[in-house]
Write a structure and sequence with these properties.
6-stranded antiparallel beta sheet, globular
Length: 207
């Protein structure tokens, strides 16, 4: 199977999983929020079956009211805490209506030969889906330790406020910990100890 076929399959898998995901009771007290998608046992099994050691699928559910009509998702790449690239963002905009409930997804595949990460971003809301692909600048990851993770709990959505959804850190030293990923939106210097970092960010707004 070609690399393009694998990516297409992962996108299809993400769409299938998103269509059946739901919000958890933990988010019930947050009127507008985003969280990791809640999957059934069978959905988890399907995800484990089709992903590989060189691929990841990130899935998020969001709920908005109160006039939110735009959502944007993008990737930032840091080197020793300095922003070196911001990749073209994916946006969804409904000028005359609230975007309501929806889903975000990121499909990540690693090319070991090139040392690069390819990202495909997906936004789905009220039956409309948009997607976009981008290639992360190749990094010299040989010999670097890596740690990564998504938001553990539901995050409140506020107008025009950035939300860190996922972070991947690379280093030849100690991986350490960052107590709260949301601190990165105002304190990128927390990444100074890491050779590279990939940070996935979303923002909701009323336009």
């Amino acid at each position: 199977m070609s690399k393009k076929s694998i990516i297409a399959l992962l996108i299809l898998l993400a769409a299938v999983l998103l269509s059946g995901s739901s919000c958890s009771a933990e988010s019930a007290d947050l009127r507008c929020h985003i969280q990791q998608a809640v999957l059934t046992h069978d959905q988890h099994d399907l995800l484990d079956l089709l992903t590989t050691p060189n691929s990841e699928i990130l899935l998020f559910d969001f709920v908005t009211y109160e006039g939110f009509n735009a959502v944007e998702i993008w990737l930032e790449v840091y080197e020793y805490g300095v922003l070196i690239d911001t990749f073209a963002s994916l946006q969804s905009y409904t000028p005359y209506a609230t975007i309501g409930n929806g889903h975000l997804a990121a499909i990540i595949t690693y090319n070991a030969e090139q040392g690069s990460y390819q990202w495909m971003l997906v936004i789905e809301q009220e039956g409309n889906r948009s997607s976009g692909g981008l290639i992360v600048t190749p990094i010299s990851s040989s010999g670097l330790a890596r740690s990564y993770g998504s938001i553990p709990d539901a995050i409140e959505i506020q107008d025009n406020i950035q939300i860190v959804l996922y972070m991947s850190k690379f280093t030849n030293g100690s991986l350490g910990t960052i107590p709260d990923m949301q601190l990165l939106t105002g304190q990128p210097e927390l990444l100074a100890q890491y050779t590279y970092a990939h940070v996935l960010i979303a923002r909701f707004s009323r336009n």
